[in-house]
């Protein structure tokens, strides 16, 4: 009887080797980092149910015999000697032994099933660990490769950035020096043009002032000469009128005298013709009359000569007056021509000075426009380079932020229809 109970007890409890395998599997499962204990698949979960169903199917057959089977407490007390053996029926013990033997067989089958399941799970666990190790190594290699590649790319970008920054600094320095040189050249040209324009303007002004002074002096001299000529003309006209008046007065007096003498001579001639028939004493009177007649003719011829001289003198004076008038007219025409020439010169100088000022103003405006364009170009280039540097810094910062340090983690397995345990692990 005792021999029948010991196998049943041994069969109900798991073997030490099974416990050792389970402990080893549990310890190995705890050692795996970032892994969980695998769950049973759907088929394996349903297996204990099937066993329970089988036991439940066998329970109606055993229920008929359980009434004749001794209880466990009574069997234990019988084994310990607290219950006498005479009080126990042999059939009951036999039924109990048969039930325990059947239960032992069932437990052995269950243990075999569990061992096979445990072996398959251990193999699956080993395969999963190997795959996880390979995947982890592959992931680390890929992460290391990606990290090295990104580090190389970052280093290349840094080198490119340094080269671009150096090139930008060189270009900026070159452009700054070029623009500074051009600016200084433009400023020097502007100063030179301004000085040249000022010198030309001062020279033109001085020349115009000298010409104006000369023209003013000539005009004043012409005015003085004209006034003097006018005074001389007036004096000559007055003297001519006075001389003409004196001449007319003298000639009138002489004509009157000559007329008086002519009348006297005519009277004497009349008296001589009347007294022709008189005494021989009349011969003396005729001789005397002829002598007086000759004297009268001489006087008349002298008077005619003097009158002719006076007429010639008057014609000469008239010619002198006409000459003076023509001279005065010529001087007036020359003075008017000089005045018109002086006014035309002043207008030309004014136009030239206005054109010079307009050219200077246009040159100053063009220089200021060129300087403004150069400064705007410098500012735009500096702003574009600053924006470009900021964009490059942002891109490098984004790349650095995307790069992460390689972590030791087990990758998630891809669930498959052929391996439900791997699918269960992936869901966990």
UniProtKB/TrEMBL annotation:
Please give the coiled-coil regions recorded for this protein.
Answer: 90-124
UniProt-annotated stretches for the region Disordered: 1-66, 270-304
**Which stretches does UniProt call biased (Polar residues)?**
51-66, 272-286
Biased composition of type Basic and acidic residues is found at: 291-304
Q: Does the keyword Transport apply?
A: no
InterPro entries recorded: DUF2046
Q: Which domain of life is it from?
A: Eukaryota
Q: Which Pfam families match?
A: DUF2046
Q: Where is the composition biased (Low complexity)?
A: 1-17
The UniProt keyword set, sorted, is: Coiled coil
Asked if the Swiss-Prot or TrEMBL record annotates the protein with the keyword Coiled coil, the reply is: yes
Q: What is this protein identified as?
A: Coiled-coil domain-containing protein 6
């Amino acid at each position: 009887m005792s021999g029948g109970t010991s196998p049943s007890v041994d069969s109900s409890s798991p073997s030490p080797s099974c416990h050792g395998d389970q402990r080893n599997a549990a310890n190995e499962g705890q050692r795996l980092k970032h892994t969980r204990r695998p769950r049973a698949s759907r088929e394996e979960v349903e297996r204990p149910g099937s066993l329970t169903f089988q036991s439940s199917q066998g329970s109606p057959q055993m229920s008929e015999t359980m009434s004749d089977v001794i209880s466990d407490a009574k069997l234990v007390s019988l084994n310990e000697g607290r219950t006498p053996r005479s009080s126990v029926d042999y059939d009951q013990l036999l039924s109990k032994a048969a039930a325990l033997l059947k239960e032992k067989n069932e437990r052995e089958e269950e243990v075999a099933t569990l061992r096979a399941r445990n072996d398959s799970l251990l193999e699956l666990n080993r395969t999963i660990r190997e795959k996880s190790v390979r995947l982890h190594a592959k992931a680390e290699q890929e992460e290391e490769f990606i990290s090295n590649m990104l580090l190389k790319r970052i280093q290349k970008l840094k080198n490119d950035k340094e080269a671009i920054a150096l090139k930008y600094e060189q270009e900026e320095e070159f452009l700054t020096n070029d623009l500074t040189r051009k600016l200084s050249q433009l400023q020097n040209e502007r100063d030179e043009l301004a000085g040249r324009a000022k010198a030309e303007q001062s020279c033109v002004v001085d020349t115009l002032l000298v010409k104006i002074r000369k023209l003013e002096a000539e005009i004043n001299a012409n005015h003085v000469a004209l006034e003097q000529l006018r005074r001389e003309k007036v004096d000559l006209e007055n003297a001519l009128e006075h001389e003409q008046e004196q001449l007319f007065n003298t000639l009138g007096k002489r004509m009157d005298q000559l007329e008086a003498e002519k009348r006297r001579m005519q009277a004497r001639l009349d008296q001589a013709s009347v007294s022709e028939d008189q005494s021989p004493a009349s011969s003396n009177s005729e001789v005397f009359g002829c002598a007086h007649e000759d004297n009268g003719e001489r006087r008349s011829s002298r008077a005619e000569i003097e009158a002719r001289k006076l007429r010639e003198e008057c014609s000469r004076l008239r010619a002198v007056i006409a000459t003076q008038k023509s001279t005065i007219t010529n001087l007036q025409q020359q003075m008017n021509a000089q005045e018109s020439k002086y006014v035309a010169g002043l207008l030309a100088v004014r136009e030239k000075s206005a054109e010079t000022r307009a050219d200077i103003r246009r040159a100053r405006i063009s220089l200021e426009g060129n300087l403004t364009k150069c400064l705007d170009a410098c500012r735009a280039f500096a702003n574009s380079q600053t924006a470009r540097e900021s964009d490059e810094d942002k891109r490098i910062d984004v790349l650095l932020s995307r790069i992460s340090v390689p972590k030791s983690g087990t990758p998630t397995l891809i669930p498959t229809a052929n391996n439900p345990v791997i699918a269960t692990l992936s869901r966990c």
